[in-house]
Amino acid sequence: MQIETLLNAEIKKVVQSLFQADVNDNLIQLQKTRKEFEGDITLVTFPLLKVSKNSPEKTGEIIGEYLKEKVEEVSDFNVIKGFLNLSISDKYWSTFFNSIYTSEKYGFAANASGKTILLEYSSPNTNKPLHLGHIRNNLLGFSVAEILKANGHYVKKVNLVNDRGIHICKSMLAWKKMGNGETPQSSGIKGDHLVGKYYVEFDKMYKAEIKSLMEAGKSKEEAEKNAPAIIEAQEMLRKWEAGDKEVVDLWKTMNGWVYEGFDVTYKKLGVDFDKFYYESETYLLGKKAVEIGLQKNVFYKKEDGSVWCDLTADGLDQKLLLRSDGTSVYMTQDIGTAIQRSEDFPSTNQMIYTVGNEQEYHFKVLFLILSKLGYDWAKECYHLSYGMVELPEGKMKSREGTVVDADDLIDEMVKTAKTTSEELGKLDDCSEEEKEKLYQTIGMGALKYFILKVDPRKGMLFNPAESIDFNGNTGPFIQYTHARIQSLLRKADFFIDEVSLGDYVFDTSEKEIIKLIYDYPETVKQSCNEYSPSIIANYTYELVKAYNHFYQALPIFKEENEEVKKFRLQLSKKVATIIQQSLALLGIQAPGRM
RNA sequence: GGUCGCGUAGCUCAGCUGGAUAGAGCAACAGCCUUCUAAGCUGUGGGUCAAAGGUUCGAAUCCUUUCGCGAUCACCA
Fold this sequence. Notes:
The strands form four sheets. Strands 7-6-5-11-12 form a five-stranded parallel beta sheet, with helices on both faces. A four-stranded antiparallel beta sheet has the order 1-2-4-3. It is α/β, with parallel strands linked by helices. The protein is globular, with a radius of gyration of 30 Å. Strand 3 and strand 4 form a beta hairpin. It has three domains: 86 residues, Gyrase A, domain 2; 270 residues, Rossmann fold, CATH 3.40.50.620; 180 residues, Isoleucyl-tRNA Synthetase, Domain 1, CATH 1.10.730.10. It is built from 21 helices and 15 strands. The chain binds one RNA strand through helix 15, strand 14, helix 16, strand 15 and helix 18.
């Protein structure tokens, strides 16, 4: 039984018998005792003063006496102002530890929730390589999926690839004009980077044309509209939509290069998907929904033929759904895609969209329109919104070259892992293959932890000039602790079975760890409720810090009491398991040595 | 201008469903490898929690206002 639940019930009894009053749960405020005070759990007595009709100190004393007397688990107490600090007996903690020690899935939901969740993430454009912003999206999406699974949900990961549109035509056009048939094979450039190169080329060409048009006396707006490059790109898009063979073939070829490139990056990031959707296949969806909406009078048509949804009653604006020429917009597609998905996965209970916070308004509108159309599941849709990754000079912009490229960053992290490992020289007896794998594990561990330890909703800053740390609150620090424990366990060549500690009194560092282990299931739940890997990351860091303190303070193999020695090994092993599982929730591997 | 979000140590971040003296890491300084991995441990210095009001026994946390930063409000995606 959870100690808080037990105490809560007992305290109610005390209040009833001593003060003749019934109190509800919100008056019984239990919290963890702060480190600087003696005790494990603290009851805040201020809210109880009204019924106790006593001073805070006196109230604490009375309740404390009673609990110590009547409740076996409460071994002692002290009162400081309005805080009753309760010490929980070592027996309780050691019984607790024994009860979970062998449970492999401790912390994770024991049973399936029966809930199916569709989680969209990544969703790249096929006209440029992935950058740091995409890394955050991918790591966040993957990790949240793992966290949902740990909480018993069934998760389908989907990726909606933005593979069509004017921006794709820009790369295609530039390649056609200046590419001289260059391919990833002929140039040795990774496919997505090659296509990205031509996207930048297009922009240069376009800007130059605008400049000369403006010099010829055109306004900026006119120049932007009438530059030959953009007109050609638009023409190309029309041809693509008409199914022009030449354009479609080029589109297929260049997208193929991009996919090969993305595949490599996804593998390095360790992310995967259950299903891909392509916008080229979904962009016409949604028109049917518009018709239904018109019939239901959820939407209305203007004189020019454009279709709108009036959201002013909900505090939002008018939203366009079909242009006057009958073509659809982003919102129309998203409506269609959502409906399509609900049909593809009829058992879905919830859809989650991992998309940057710049699109908060878009999703608010999307979910609102879907529910106006009568889809019940719309209220279960959730925009997993995350903050932008900014550089010291501000937002990243692909066209201006102020981006941190995903592949470059990954390579750099792995290289740093290699350099550091070589300096430390602990892997000298490993095979080259093992070493390379470890560099990968450590480098990616550093990168992933760096991204995921930050609350996803918040923006974050990345300074490329300061490399990502490998010491302190970092992935490698946590991985290192895991490796260190594994080393211990390898040395313990005996089987650690039952331990009888007798009257052994825990060292504070041992108790600290047990209490953290006790918190683990709650942490896994909380990270799920808040869709926040950072909660797992911060928890793991706390656990690891407590473990390192213990490791430093107390001997393990040199401990003379055999039972205590075995207990410390058990404790170490459990910590290692939790580290490994927590890191897995973040998509990070826990190496056996490093 | 409307809406939403943010502002905590030199830097990067925790803490925010109200609780005790606001925490970590990095950077700086001082210690610890003849005990199990020093990618570690211990310690020192560093704060008007943007500002001002309010609610409360109690506010970094809730409310209001102001300032600053960002996003968004397209017949772009």
